[in-house]
């Protein structure tokens, strides 16, 4: 695919959990909710402009990540969205929501937060997601 | 598919533009943005729980609707999202955003609005979308 460089805003706001040749898995720093972001390595900025084979692969990863978030964070609802008004690099939010989270039932974008992840928590998420996706640890960065 | 009844909140907040056997196309009453909502006729509440054949069909309709919104409303960015924290019936937002819309670059959910559609505008949207999707007018309701 294309030469990939993660958008600076995404890099600032998120932890890079896993990176493969075609996709980056990010975890947003806001630990109030289980907020993952998939970044396909493409220059396209709109989902509908992706080739159908790429869309299908992306949907498979959205499904897997959604299942993971549902199971591992005991989520009541999964929010899936591609917005891109601020960061044009295509990225898909996969967010585990709980009825007792601080924002429920409102959406999470544009909210202040204090709760963040420590390195042990990040390592655990990375280990579990890597295992769930069936990826080798060599994909971790 | 299943016997389908549109959620009361969606019926209250939106205009039903087109209804086929498997899918309803809604237009949100908030005319500040070009806010369409696809409602697949299913009892599933999570996208990842849909069968892959249904997901593929839904993605095709998301693509078509996104293209339509991009072209007919001169949109700068298409926002696609399935949230479902308030209305559990599965529905996918396909929203045309412009850099000069009142909410840009923020998301549209939970906002107040004054601007709505009149019946002539609704008829025009219905006619154009029906034509774009290649549907017979008999699908209109």
Uncertain runs of chain A: 137-141
Structural class of chain A: alpha+beta
CATH architecture of chain A: 2-Layer Sandwich
Identify the CATH homologous superfamily of chain A: HIT-like
**How many distinct beta strands of chain A?**
5
Strand order of the largest sheet of chain A: 1-2-3-5-4
Reported by name, the CATH topology of chain A is HIT family, subunit A
Helix content of chain A: 25-40%
Biggest interchain interface, per-side counts: A-B, 31 and 31 residues
Helix-strand sequence of chain A? HEEEHEEH
Can you walk through the features of this model?
The structure is a homodimer of 141-residue chains. In chain A, 30% of the residues lie in helices and 22% in strands. Chain A is globular. With 141 residues, the first copy, chain A, is α+β, with helices and mostly antiparallel strands. Chain A has helices at 8-13, 52-72, 119-133; strands at residues 14-19, 23-28, 34-40, 77-82, 92-97. The first copy, chain A, has a five-stranded antiparallel β-sheet with strand order 1-2-3-5-4. Chain A has a single domain, classed as 2-Layer Sandwich (HIT family, subunit A). At the A-B interface, helix 2 and strand 4 of A face helix 2 and strand 4 of B. Strand 4 (77-82) of chain A pairs antiparallel with strand 4 of chain B, so a sheet runs across the interface.
